């Protein structure tokens, strides 16, 4: 098991768990339970550690993407953006949230199964960085939409390629 400090938590002299300077017992009493608490300073530190680890392990151009399906609370997504992470979205809601928070299209990759035709059209219209294609049918649909929009569709495969017109 990991000690509380490994999670950015502390224990008070009376044994209560604390997040930052806040007692978890007091937070639960004030807000009720269940209660989901994020330690923002620890979140930002962890994001920076991921960025540093990637930079140290890979000398080329690389980025760290936050999977918004993990926690798509706007304040959390905004914090990870502030820390320098990019966005990985899987749904139209996540794409909309990422754009409203300020992620540029070039900072967004799209991953996830069963992308609707409407979602594929939106991805092309917004020129997201990459689309992870999950099936040959999805690849065909994306290529067809790219052709009809006279645009290229950036896809992620064994190497970055484009389908549709350039």
Descriptive account of the structure:
The protein is α/β, with parallel strands linked by helices and 166 residues long. Helices cover 41% and strands 18% of the residues. The protein contains 6 helices and 9 strands, in the order βββααβαβαβαβαββ. It has helices at residues 24-31, 40-57, 74-82, 92-101, 117-126, 136-148; strands at residues 9-11, 17-19, 22-23, 65-67, 86-89, 108-110, 130-132, 152-156, 161-164. The strands form 2 sheets. The protein has a 6-stranded mixed sheet. A 3-stranded antiparallel sheet has the order 1-2-3. Helix 2 crosses helix 3 (74-82) and helix 5 crosses helix 6. The model has no long low-confidence stretch (mean pLDDT 89).
Q: Could you list some keywords that capture this structure?
A:
single chain, 166 residues, alpha/beta, six-stranded mixed beta sheet, 9 strands
Query: Count of helices?
Result: 6
Assembly status: single chain
What is the overall pLDDT average? 89
Helix content: 40-55%
Largest sheet: 6 strands, mixed
Query: From the helix content, strand content and strand pairing, which structural class follows?
Result: alpha/beta
Q: Give the percentage of residues in beta strands.
A: 15-25%
How would you write the strand order of the largest sheet?
Answer: 4-5-6-7-8-9
SSE order: EEEHHEHEHEHEHEE
Identify low-pLDDT runs: none
Give the CA-based shape. elongated
Distance between the termini: 52 Å
DSSP E strands, number: 9
Our Rg estimate from Cα atoms comes to 20 Å
